[in-house]
Design goal:
alpha+beta; Bit1; 4 helices; 5 strands
């Protein structure tokens, strides 16, 4: 079990903003997972990895692939209250889910 958060690296977010967006993605994807997956992920220490892509379009593509594979995923759009315009796609949380199911979607991506 693991969770992956993938960040839109094109935005070059400051560390604090990046941390907040990653947290949004982690929590929102967790809420979408089925209760058994949530329980198993919590029990194994909540493993998560943060990866990067070059664009919002790449994040949208990951959302489509996750949906097609029935993997819980949550695309994060900024609320526009600080640095970014409202609706800016910052990251996506994928999982918690079985590691192999997530790796099929994100295994080729680089660490942030």
């Amino acid at each position: 079990m693991k969770q992956v958060i993938v960040v839109n690296q094109a935005l070059d977010l400051p560390a604090g903003k990046l941390a907040a967006q990653v947290a949004h993605a982690s929590v929102s994807a967790f809420v979408l997972a089925d209760p058994e997956a949530q329980k198993r992920w919590l029990e194994c220490g909540m493993p998560k990895i943060v990866l990067a892509v070059a664009s919002a379009e790449a994040l949208r593509e990951l959302q489509s692939l996750a949906d097609a594979g029935s993997v819980p995923a949550s695309l994060v759009e900024d609320a526009g209250k600080t640095l970014l315009p409202a609706g800016t796609i910052t990251c996506i949380g994928i999982g918690p889910a079985e590691t192999q199911n997530i790796d099929r979607l994100t295994g080729r991506l680089a660490l942030l």
